[in-house]
Design brief:
The protein has three helices and three strands. The chain is α+β, with helices and mostly antiparallel strands. GO terms for molecular function: 4 iron, 4 sulfur cluster binding; cyclic pyranopterin monophosphate synthase activity; GTP 3',8'-cyclase activity.
Length: 91
């Protein structure tokens, strides 16, 4: 069959402002950026019997506070970010 190949060019063509992807790692941490050095643990919220609405509210709050701009800032100033393997957060 036919297939399709695509590239995520986040370094040469930053799209941070339009990014709408949240990554949930197997350990219950949510990452708002593929290049994030730390995530937010929402495992306790999920295990506490929170309703779908409560979980949605938690995620909306996390998303509204995001300031990830790795690809946009990468060329501006030399920054050192701790490394998190992309395969760990779904990249």
């Amino acid at each position: 069959g036919s297939g399709e190949v695509g590239f995520i060019s986040s370094v040469s063509e930053p799209f941070c402002g339009e990014c709408s992807r949240l990554r949930l790692a197997a350990d219950g941490h949510v990452y708002t950026c593929l290049f994030a050095s730390a995530g937010t643990d929402i495992k306790d919220v999920m295990r506490s019997g929170a309703s779908d609405e409560d979980l949605i509210a938690t995620i909306k709050t996390l998303w509204s506070k995001r300031d990830d701009r790795y690809s946009e800032l990468r060329g501006a100033v030399p920054l050192a970010f701790p490394r998190v393997e992309m395969s760990y957060i779904g990249g």
